[in-house]
Amino acid sequence: MKASTTQPVIALKGLVKRYGIGDAEHTVLDSVDLVIEKGEFIAIMGPSGCGKTTLLNILGLLDRADDGEYLLDGTSVDTLSAGRRAHIRSNQVGFVFQNFNLVPRLNVIDNVALPLTYRGMRRLKRLKEASRMLSTFHLSEREYYMPWQLSGGQTQRVAIARALVNNPSIVLADEPTGNLDSRSSHVIMEELADIHARGNTIIMVTHNPDLTSYASRVIRMLDGRIDSDTKTPRATKPATAPKKRLDATMASSEKKPAKKRTRKTKKANKS
Fold first, then answer.
1. Which residues contact 97 (CB under 8 A, 6 or more apart)?
2. What is the distance of C-alpha 203 from the center of its chain?
3. pTM of the predicted model as reported, rounded to 2 decimal places
4. Is a pLDDT exceeding 60 seen at residue 267?
5. Nearest to 223 by CA among 68, 35, 30
6. Which of 17, 93, 112, 169 is the most buried (most CB within 10 A)?
7. CA distances from 266 to 49, 134, 256 (A)
8. What is the pLDDT, as a whole number, of residue 234?
9. Residue 103, C-beta contacts closer than 8 angstroms, at least 6 positions apart
């Protein structure tokens, strides 16, 4: 039987990250070895300070390791120029943050179109792309809202739309439901599951053990090391079922019963 020749998307060997100097030096990542294949949905868990977010930042080329090797699609990131690293961040990696990180002075559609600006795309074309992406998240009616006019769930969906507008192959999510209620969290996780079903590689940091049911692999970290690495095959679902549930959940969350009651009250007063 022939061995698989598929190249992993990410391969880490002996990765080390330290902060501080001298007596104040602290090792955040301690000889981390990790291989991630294309199309995996990985949940990284562990207590605060175990190195989860630091690892995610290094994977997304937002930070550098002090020692060890990081291969991205077979290429050592240490050999990449600053310009090449920025190009990969803009085109190959999408980021979803716990605090959303939308630009408060920009409306929804301009926030989503922002990554396309760095690719030199003309304004009209990038607005069309942003509008198309927002429509897939049922946010077309919110295109010209400001971030402060959105609910928490809507804000996170805008952040995910922004992360995907460049069609990245890797999505990095740092506590994507950390600031949301359970209902909005379910909507966001169904969105990420749908993105994964399209073939994207997703790496998610979370403190919530309930969210690991969406992942195909769960990595637990402790004191800067990988403590356990478990594959968790998910139950097969009908292709249309998640979408129907998602549409129903979002539709019900955006109803405005207060206006209906107001109209009925006015009719009653006239009679």
1. 159, 174, 175, 176
2. 8
3. 0.80
4. no
5. 30
6. 112
7. 57, 36, 17
8. 58
9. 110, 111, 114, 147
